[in-house]
Amino acid sequence: MLGYFVRRGLLIIPTFIGITLLVFSITRVVPGGPIERMMTQAQLGGEAGSLHRSEGGGTLSDEQLEELKRYYGFDKPLLSSYAIWLKQVLRFDLGLSTRYQDPVWDIIKERFPVSVFYGVTTLVLTYLVCIPLGLLKGMYHGSRFDNLSSAVVFLGYALPSYVIGIALISVFAGYYDWFPLGGFVSDNFEELSPLAKAKDVFHHAALPLIAYLAGSFAVTTLMMKNALMDNLSADYMRTAAAKGLSLGKSVRRHALRNSLIPVATSFGNNISLLIGGSFLIETIFNIDGIGLLGYEAIIERDYPIVMGILVISSLLYLIGNILSDICVAIVDPRIRFGGGSR
Fold it and tell me: Cα separation of 119 and 141, whole Å?
């Protein structure tokens, strides 16, 4: 098994290079990059950083264009520019933002606490609620509890998260004024006691978390229910019932572990959600997280920030795939990666 995970770890390198090279290539060919933005500013009469307009007026001179190409690394072939960028990444240097003129890592690092808080909280709440709920729905399939909970689950799944977010903020923040309209913390957050700070954070986070949970909640619940129902119809469960074990004991002793395998398979893939966030939800609730930062970077053609977020999210996703295999191996001891099953 160790050899399998070593091979999977080594596969991260070519996969990471392939992902980043593809996106890096796209940033070189799509219109509206930093140089085009500088030319637009010059045509509108603004200054392009420390560069001045040519005496002719609205366009940049050839010398200024060459200077911009050298500054942004567009004066070199694609592979040479990518190799230079990759060397910087290996030195933990993600470059400078073309919009803010600050180090990309510093900009992303400022948004990390917010995105990690929402990502971790969403992940923990999803599994804490959905696994027991899926078990109960599977054990009492067709009951009134199953039907009522299915109606709520499917309603949350059918409505997009941003629609739920708009409804929540309109009703509970706008109409009833029970929750703040947005933000991560209050303006006087630093003056509060530790307990009051925690209450303030969760007071602001309640509505966004409900919106975040809406989609993944239904998927995980139904995945758990369907897996349990498949196992309940297996021969070993009928044998357990014939021996006099109650339904609850049969599920806990025999069916639970096998039913967790599909959930464990998807666990690692959710790791990338820890920083991804949703720019729509973050925009609605005025949350300054990684999702909103990435969206703004794409709109503003701030490619260093786009590539910086891609580096972190792709690494998390690739490592998450390995974590999924580890979770499956823990849940199902029959699995021996690289050596077949017992």
Answer: 31
| Cα dist from 250 to 115, 140, 254, whole Å | 40, 14, 6
Residues 6 or more apart whose Cβ sits within 8 Å of residue 267: 127, 320, 323, 324, 327
The residues near 61 (Cβ < 8 Å, ≥ 6 apart) are 54
DSSP letter at 51 equals B
Q: How far apart are CA 23 and CA 20, in angstroms?
A: 5
- As annotated, the residues of the chain forming the CATH 1.10.3720.10 domain(s) are 105-341
For residue 213, give every residue at least 6 positions away whose Cβ sits within 8 Å of its Cβ, in sequence order, or none.
Answer: 122, 125, 126, 156
Domain 105-341 class, CATH top level: mainly alpha
Per-residue pLDDT tens for 114-123? 888 888 888 8
Token pair listed for 83: 């190799």
pLDDT in tens, 153-186: 888 778 888 888 888 989 998 888 888 887 888 8
Contact (Cβ atoms closer than 8 angstroms) between residue 300 and residue 33: no
* DSSP code at position 96: B
Secondary structure (DSSP) of 120-149: HHHHHHHHHHHHHHHHHHHHTTTSHHHHHH
DSSP secondary-structure letter at 337?
T
Q: What type of residue is 167?
A: A
The two three-digit tokens of residue 58, written as one number: 């609205």
Exposed / middle / buried, residue 118 (Cβ in 10 Å: 0-12, 13-18, 19+): buried
First to last CA, the chain: 13
CA torsion angle 311 317 323 325 (round to 10): -130
Read off the pTM.
Answer: 0.75
